[in-house]
Design brief:
- By secondary structure, the protein is α/β, with parallel strands linked by helices.
- α4 runs parallel beside α5 (about 180-190).
- It has 6 helices and 14 strands.
- The strands form 3 sheets. It has a 6-stranded mixed sheet, covered by helices on one side. Strands 5-6-9-10-12-11 form a 6-stranded mixed sheet, with helices on one face.
- The protein has a single domain (about 5-240), classed as Purple Acid Phosphatase, chain A, domain 2, CATH 3.60.21.10.
């Protein structure tokens, strides 16, 4: 690989997974590291979840990513997911200003000769946390606006929710729970590539971490696993387990 990108999602504050990701990301041919949502620890026996997540972001995530960028010179793109509390976005914005990483949600950035865009929101789900949840109609509107910021056919979209009815959105019951708006977006816009997470178990349930909608390749590597792909050669992609 000459222009490799490393992607992981649903790290949920697990430091050993972060360290493994950065180990892979430090490879000489790696251009960028992308972290696709659910970045913070969620479950804790005592204390407030928002504070627990805030401490993780402030005392581990921001300084560690800044150290990585300063040492390697590589880009780090990051966004929240549905288990991350939006109250702490101010810290991520400060982290971006300090040079620790570049925020992705509803933004577009250059990555090699292509673009990368992010979308943190998931379709409606039976979870208590609603900070990053929208109905399908609003997701559709958001993605239409996002598609205007770059040529979708030259853009990698990191969207936390997977597209409905694919290898990427199957829960333990066997039900497909992805987003219909995201699926329609991919079908209509035919982006270069889409990266997903959220449904941790889907690759194990379906036996596949990728799918195709038209000519677009969509991937959910699963919780904590690491996708490595080449911007110029999509045939060489692989998923590394932690």
């Amino acid at each position: 690989m000459t222009d490799a990108v490393v992607f992981a999602t649903d790290l949920h504050g697990e430091i050993h997974n972060y360290e493994r990701l950065l180990e892979v990301g430090a490879g000489k041919n790696v251009k960028a590291v992308v972290i696709g949502g659910d970045i913070s620890p969620f479950l804790t026996a005592i204390g407030d979840v928002a504070t627990y997540q805030r401490e993780f972001i402030e005392f581990y995530l921001i300084p560690r990513m800044k150290q990585f960028r300063e040492k390697t010179g590589k880009d780090v793109f990051i966004m929240m997911g549905n288990d991350d509390i939006n109250l702490n976005m101010d810290l991520l914005e400060k982290g971006e200003k300090s040079g620790s990483f570049t925020l992705l949600n509803q933004k577009v950035h250059k990555i090699g000769d292509k673009f990368i865009a992010g979308y943190s929101y998931i379709n409606e789900a039976p979870f208590l946390m609603k900070d990053w949840e929208k109905n399908e109609e609003n997701i559709k509107k958001d993605l239409e606006e996002l598609s205007k910021l770059s040529d979708p056919r030259k853009t990698i979209y990191s969207m936390h929710a997977p597209p409905l009815g694919t290898n990427l959105d199957v829960i333990f019951s066997g039900e497909h729970v992805g987003s219909s708006a995201i699926r329609e977006f991919i079908k209509e816009k035919q982006p270069f590539m889409t990266l997903h997470g959220h449904i941790h178990e889907s690759p194990q349930m379906t036996g596949n971490w990728k799918d195709a909608i038209g000519d677009s390749i969509s991937i959910n590597p699963g919780k904590g696993s690491i996708l490595v792909f080449d911007l110029n050669d999509m045939k060489t992609m692989e998923v590394l387990t932690v």
